[in-house]
Design brief:
Pfam families: Aldolase. GO terms for molecular function: lyase activity. The protein is of the alpha/beta class. The protein has one domain: Aldolase class I (TIM Barrel). The protein has eight helices and nine strands. A nine-stranded parallel sheet has the order 5-4-3-2-1-9-8-7-6. α6 links the parallel β7 and β8. The protein is globular and about 45 Å long.
Length: about 200
């Protein structure tokens, strides 16, 4: 079962990326983002595409320009995530046939992203807006447009975010920090997956 959880592997190295990503997939998280400001971020993305591209949605984060999009597309990755709402990046992503998830915070940014063709929205930093803020945004956003809460969502509050209208989550340091072993990431991933499944129960 594919869950709408994106593991954000900020700061990971190419040598760490494959065992950590394998651990995530085995634990039930099959959407993986390597931010481009990680050491040799593109190399990590390329390795994960080769190793897991048939079993997971692999992508890059902190994608800030159309040039970045072109480099990501060349790896075979399918997902582009940004911290901001840049219509040029969204357009380049869609033109390359990739999934676009730009970062948004305000209604103006949300609708700018929608008009530019975003596939989903990354509410960031979600902790500042909170579930109540998302609930207010959800009153005006298209119901069929997925919203991912990123920054501030975790095992303890997934249910609050889901009630507020979050469709999915981007999870960073709660899963991975530089130097954390694949075994520890796997344990954290299993705990998170169990919490997500509980939050999905009727």
């Amino acid at each position: 079962m594919s869950r709408p959880i994106i593991a954000i592997l900020r700061g990971i190295t190419p040598a760490e990326a494959e065992p950590v990503a394998e651990a995530l997939v085995e634990a039930g998280i099959d959407r993986i983002e390597v931010p481009l400001n990680s050491p040799d971020g593109l190399e990590s993305v390329a390795r994960l595409v080769r190793r897991l591209g048939d079993r997971a949605l692999i992508g890059a984060g902190t994608v800030l320009s159309p040039e970045d999009v072109a480099r990501v597309a060349a790896t075979g990755a399918r997902l582009v995530v940004s911290p901001d709402c840049n219509p040029e990046v969204i357009a380049a992503t869609r033109a390359a046939g990739l999934i676009s998830i730009p970062g948004v915070f305000t209604p103006t940014e949300c609708f700018a992203a929608i008009r530019a063709g975003a596939n989903a929205l990354k509410l960031f930093p979600a902790t500042l807006l909170g579930p109540a803020g998302l609930e207010a945004l959800r009153a005006v956003l298209p119901r069929d447009l997925p919203v991912f809460a990123v920054g501030g969502a975790g095992e303890a509050n997934l249910q609050d975010w889901r009630r507020a209208g979050a469709d999915g989550f981007g999870i960073g340091t709660a899963l991975y920090r530089p130097g954390r072993s694949a075994a520890e990431v796997a344990e954290r991933a299993r705990t998170l997956v169990a919490a997500f499944d509980r939050s999905s129960a009727p």
